[in-house]
Specification:
The chain is mainly α. It has two domains: 3-38, no CATH class; 66-107. The protein has two helices and no strands. The chain starts with 27 loop residues before the first helix and ends with a helix.
Length: 111
C-alpha cells in the first residue's frame, strides 16, 4: 500500500482534537476571541427617516356651475335653482379635494 496518497490523521493546522475549545488548547486566538466576545453589546436599532416622493395628485375637473348660464333677465326661480345646484356642485368638489388631501396626510399617498 502506498502511504503518499493517504490523508493524514492529524492536520498540521490543528493543535489537538476538535472536541477541545481553542482557549483550553492554550492558543492565543482563543483567548482573544473570548475577550472580544465579552466586549460586544446588543445590536441597536436606529430609525432614519427616508424621503419618499409623493405620487402626483389626481386630476379633478372643476365643476360647471349653473350660475354661469344665468342671464341678466333670468327669472328669480331660475336664479334660486341655479344657485342651489351650484352650491351642491361646489360642496361635492370640496369633498373630493378634502378626501385627496387626507390621503396625503395619513399615508403620504393620494387615495
Amino acid at each position: 500500500m502506498n502511504n503518499e496518497n493517504q490523508i493524514p490523521l492529524n492536520s498540521p493546522f490543528t493543535k489537538g482534537d476538535f472536541k477541545t475549545p481553542p482557549f483550553v488548547k492554550g492558543g492565543l486566538g482563543g483567548i482573544c476571541l473570548l475577550l472580544l466576545s465579552a466586549c460586544t453589546t446588543l445590536p441597536q436599532t436606529v430609525e432614519v427617516p427616508v424621503a419618499v416622493p409623493c405620487t402626483a395628485p389626481p386630476e379633478i375637473a372643476r365643476p360647471r356651475l349653473a350660475i354661469g348660464a344665468l342671464r341678466a333677465d333670468s327669472p328669480p326661480a331660475d336664479v334660486i335653482r341655479a344657485y342651489a345646484e351650484s352650491l351642491e356642485a361646489v360642496a361635492g368638489y370640496a369633498e373630493q379635494l378634502e378626501t385627496i388631501l387626507n390621503g396625503y396626510r395619513e399615508g403620504g399617498r393620494a387615495r
